[in-house]
Write a structure and sequence with these properties.
The chain has 397 residues and is α/β, with parallel strands linked by helices. The protein is 33% helix and 20% strand. Strands 1, 2, 5, 6, 7, 8, 9, 10, 11, 14 and 15 form an 11-stranded mixed sheet that branches. Strands 3-4 form a two-stranded antiparallel ribbon. A hairpin with a 2-residue loop joins strand 1 and strand 2.
């Protein structure tokens, strides 16, 4: 099986702008959860979010594109510029490149503005479809290869990475800009608020008193590339995208299967597809939403897949720091996993104060932990029973 290299990464979320800021915040165990201000909180039961407070368009972006771009597209552009540049690529590199982006809100915030006091504008409608962030990236970086937008709820970003790797292995593209982006918007926030799925105290994964999630926003972009091509280009290889596994619960629109069978299948398929033994996994970045059902079911699923080894694997939820970034979550958490490998630490579950007896794994509460990590697993489970697990491996060279 053709190896897939990670040659570029980019990040923006509530913990900061750029991969260095993200890595430092993860190591320090900082939380980006605070009072909701990007949206008017009036009428919501809960008014907390992990929001990007300083969203500025990349300096190289044309004024026209920056003016029209939705919040989700701007987040993607910031992360993409960093990833594309880190990989040593230019606008002349897009001929044999593809782009695949996971998102759930797309430009929904722009559509919402058309119902505001300033009245409707054609440009806002044009920027509102879910596919537009992908289109904007392709145009900005002159990417003329395959282009796909993935919207499988909260597994969208993880699936985008997997599809990109499939394209490379199938020879459809030599390099792919991929990942996830999602922004806060009123419709999405109101939906979770009406489901009473938001924790008024903030997301507390695996805690006995957890009561729901915290919505976040952000983007994480990767440049994935054929391994041999990366070697020929003499570009630094940051890590390896090993494999991914997917499954469908076929159970309920919002609730996971009580037996965790879908989560089990996604993890097992990721390991089998990558030829990775369960004992090789050094760290698991859990889906870890902080909802009463998810955390217990994911814990059981991990124990089913890994057996006794499950108790030796640190399992943490970075949603305790960046919130649940919906369609971007899988890409952001895969990036957190890669940064953990490269930085030699396990990110903490910062808000875990009171252990839940039903959640009995090593969740690394409060503070990060030094660790030598080689191979990691990142889980993403979405509404509708969309489950994806991603395996990443470090590279020294």
């Amino acid at each position: 099986m053709r190896k897939v290299a990670v040659t570029g990464i980019g990040s923006i979320n509530a913990l900061g702008r750029g991969v260095d800021e993200f890595a430092n915040a993860l190591r320090e165990g900082r939380s980006g959860i605070g009072a909701l201000s990007v949206l008017d909180p009036a009428g919501f039961r809960v008014a907390l979010a992990a929001q990007v407070t300083d969203l500025r368009a990349p300096a190289a972006l044309s004024r026209a594109t920056a003016r029209r771009a939705s919040r989700s597209a701007l987040l993607a552009l910031v992360a993409a510029q960093e990833a594309w540049g880190m990989a040593g690529l230019t606008t002349d590199s897009g001929g044999d490149a593809g782009v695949v982006i996971g998102t759930t809100t797309g430009g929904m915030s722009m559509g919402e503005q058309n119902y505001g006091p300033s009245g409707p504008r054609l440009s806002r409608w044009l920027e509102s479809p879910v596919s537009v962030p992908t289109d904007v990236l392709a145009q900005t970086f002159s990417i003329s290869g395959p282009r796909v937008t993935v919207s499988t709820a909260c597994s969208s970003g993880a699936n985008a990475l997997g599809i990109a790797a499939d394209w490379i292995r199938a020879g459809r593209a030599a390099v792919v800009l991929c990942g996830g982006t999602d922004s806060l918007c009123r419709g999405t926030y109101a939906g979770f608020d009406s489901l009473q799925a938001l924790d008024p105290a903030g997301c507390r994964p695996f805690d006995k008193h957890r009561a729901g999630l915290t919505i976040g926003e952000g983007a994480a972009l990767f440049v994935l590339e054929d391994w041999e091509r990366a070697l020929r280009r003499r570009t630094p290889i940051l890590g390896e995208f090993v494999s991914y596994g997917v499954s469908a619960d076929a159970h309920h629109l919002t609730q996971p299967r009580p037996d965790g069978a879908g989560a089990v299948l996604a993890m097992q398929r990721a390991l089998q597809k990558g030829g990775v033994a369960a004992g090789e996994i050094d760290y698991i970045n859990a889906h870890g939403t902080g909802t009463p059902l998810n955390d217990v079911i994911e814990t059981k699923a991990i124990k089913t897949v890994f057996g006794a080894h499950a108790f030796a694997i640190p399992v943490t939820s970075t949603k305790s720091m960046v919130g649940h970034c919906l369609g971007a979550a899988g890409a952001i958490e895969a990036l957190a996993s890669l940064l953990a490998i490269r930085g030699g630490f396990v990110p903490p579950t910062v808000s875990l104060d009171t252990p839940d007896p039903e959640c009995d794994l090593d969740y690394v509460p409060a503070k990060s932990r030094p660790a030598r990590l080689r191979t990691v697993l990142s889980n993403s489970y979405g509404f509708g029973g969309n489950n994806t697990s991603v395996v990443l491996r470090g590279h020294e060279g």
